[in-house]
Amino acid sequence: MRVKFHGAAGEVTGSCHEVEANGHRLLLDCGMIQGSEEDERRNFDEFPFDPRELDAVVLSHAHIDHCGRLPLLVKRGFKGPIWTQWATADLLRVMLEDAAALAEMDAERDNRHRRGGRGNHQPLFTRGDVGQVLRQVRGLDYGQREQILAGVFITLRDAGHILGSASVQLEALEPGGRRVLAFSGDIGPRGTPILRDPQPVPEADLVLLESTYGGREHRERGATLREIGEVLEHAWTDGGNVIIPAFAVGRSQELLYWFARQWDEWKMSRWRIFLDSPMAMKVVEVYGRHESLFDEDAQRVWNGRPHPFRLPNLHLTPEVAQSRAINDIRGGAIIIAGSGMCNGGRVRHHLRQNLGRRQAHVMFVGYQARGTLGRRLVDGAESVHIFGEEIRVNAARHTVGGLSAHAGQSGLMDWYGAIAGRPPVALVHGEDDARQALAKALEKQYGAQVTLARPDMVSEV
Ligand SMILES: [Zn+2]
Fold first, then answer.
1. Is the pLDDT at 119 greater than 70, yes or no?
2. What is residue 39's DSSP assignment?
3. Distance 112 CA to ligand 1 centre (A)
4. Is residue 45 located within the same domain as residue 187?
5. Cα(330)–Cα(73) distance, rounded to whole angstroms?
6. CA 66 / ligand 1 centre spacing (Å)
7. Considering the chain, what is the average pLDDT of its residues?
8. Distance (Å, rounded) from C-alpha 415 to C-alpha 339?
9. Dihedral class, residue 29 (left if φ above 0, else alpha if ψ from -120 to 50, else beta)
10. Does the pLDDT at position 117 exceed 70?
11. Has keyword Hydrolase (predicted)?
12. Residues 27 and 40 in one domain
């Protein structure tokens, strides 16, 4: 078995690894590159392999940086099955349909802006391509060992990162013997709300390990919750709105979960809460269909009052006009809107309205990649451009790190430490400083043989 690294090898987004196993070729993930406009143009590039020659895809989870180029893969000739956990299959529809709508809008805008309005930009993919992806998806339960190709088996284990997220154990019964590859996917921290804790793969000959937060620990969860409580209290006293840029999958639902759990403590009933993300609303429905995957705490909260997704002061605003109406509110509103890194979506309208106000607060609760508006705000930019307009930033900014959907260094170490035999590791899905720090820690504590994956690098399993 061999692995060739194509994406998220030296960066965080664009997860994509090609595996040769028992004479078959398959892909682990087929993610989109996210970041600056220049970075994102790379999504139009040819794949570094022929999609028609792939036999299967195994998808770790539904985040767009892991699944976002699947429609393009299909459009360019991939006909095989796409194996993934059932809940991921369900989320995939929501994620990819949204991505296709954005791609179609982008192409249309580019064409309009061309001289004479006669551009011929094609969207990266269309809703038709997404439909084809969904027809090729095959669902699996966690722990179900499935032969996906002759002599090639996969088992998915709960990665505790988002609903349906999985680590992949890939076994190949090759003429030279049985070889096992473990692909971590994205690993969540222990105690993530709603989800169960990550389950390690029991054994492997090579591990592909994510390293997003390989160089640091998150704040302890109790401290994080106190911090959110303080921001809300502060904002209430200031009389402003609270804008929370949040990914539609995971973070938006978690916030509602915390609001329900801390209902009295945070005096949540005094706020008007807006979930201003049509996609997050669809994801809420998906969560409702997979409650059996929730951990025990969440099952208890779901059976109590208030129900996280039916808070009495929660306003869902699917229509654009409803979203616009929020612009008139100058204080007392908590607005959860996407995109999580502020590089698109309705949150940009709310930032445009609120960033200039001293009494407003922006609370970042997720990772902000380089080159995004969110990253510039977190890094303290005094002014930013939104819709071509320069806006001075007077609002208070808070970075609440402890809610991350990614394990910190010790979580990644523990996940690796539970795999029998201390196999060699290739670090993926992290910026270089994070990977170097994690490599050092793995070498020191476990004597592990660690490499930092680079594009086009090949590792033998
Ligand atoms: Zn992810």
1. no
2. H
3. 34
4. yes
5. 45
6. 7
7. 94
8. 30
9. left
10. no
11. yes
12. yes
